[in-house]
Amino acid sequence: MYQQQLINIGLLPKEAKVYETLLNLGPNSITSIYQKSNLKKGDTYNVLHALKEKKLITEKIDRGKTLFLAEPPQKIESILRNKQKQLEAEKAELENLLPDLTTLFQTTTDKPIIQTQAGIEGMENFYEKILHTKNEVLIFVSKYDRDDHDMEKLIDRYTLKQYRKGIKLRALNPIDPQYSKSSHEDYLKDRHDKNITVRFISKKFTFPSQIIVFDNTIGITSLKNDVITTVIDNPDIAHTFKTLFEYMWLKAGEDHDKLIK
């Protein structure tokens, strides 16, 4: 009756059958178990051993006879916890492996890998990826990146994580003339203290979207209305954005000091 649900939770089909049989029978001998579950005797021994390993059954001796009995169903929660831990470990292993696999993929094709992720969660997934880089990160700062409270918290949280990882960043930041010179100087110092070097550019060159470039990856996040992050992995496209950034960085050096006076 409950075999499919038990399988979905993580038991193998024969394990689910034997466990449910024991729940119905109560403490019983192997003969009763394999007859009731319609399994071969050898299979039943193997399944009972597996269930015992999972701590879902125990055995006891009663008048010289070995009896098997099911543990309370609450024990199944431990299977789910172990499954969750395994998935988390596999996810962490994949995240560490992805950069190498992506590089390997890109050596045999010019086709870019493009992913689109929606919402703050998608933006956070991309920020997590940044934490694995060993190289400098380049940012075109959007004029909308502080308009949403949740987004602002996310940016501040990952700015701190990047700092703790020792990641260095450079940012092209359109200046907001409504703030005073001292405010701009405080902002520059705060960024500098977090390994971020900022150059202000004129407000007429504001960026509606945030663009982040590192390694062979570009993340373009639309922030004006719906938050949509498009992630592109391709060395040539990344090199193009880096070249564009460096050109603007060079030009911004001429205007930066004038803008904060």
Question: Any descriptors?
Answer:
elongated; two-stranded antiparallel sheet; 7-stranded mixed β-sheet; 9 strands; alpha+beta; Arc Repressor Mutant, subunit A
Written overview of the protein:
It comes from Candidatus Falkowbacteria bacterium CG10_big_fil_rev_8_21_14_0_10_39_11. By secondary structure, this protein is α+β, with helices and mostly antiparallel strands. It folds into two domains: 3-78, Orthogonal Bundle (Arc Repressor Mutant, subunit A), CATH 1.10.10; 113-259, Endonuclease, Chain A (2-Layer Sandwich). It is built from nine helices and nine strands. The chain has helices at residues 3-9, 13-25, 30-37, 41-53, 76-106, 119-130, 149-164, 181-193, 235-259; strands at 57-62, 65-70, 113-118, 137-140, 169-174, 196-201, 209-214, 217-222, 228-233. The strands form two sheets. A seven-stranded mixed sheet has the order 3-9-8-7-4-5-6, with helices on both faces. The protein is elongated and about 95 Å long.
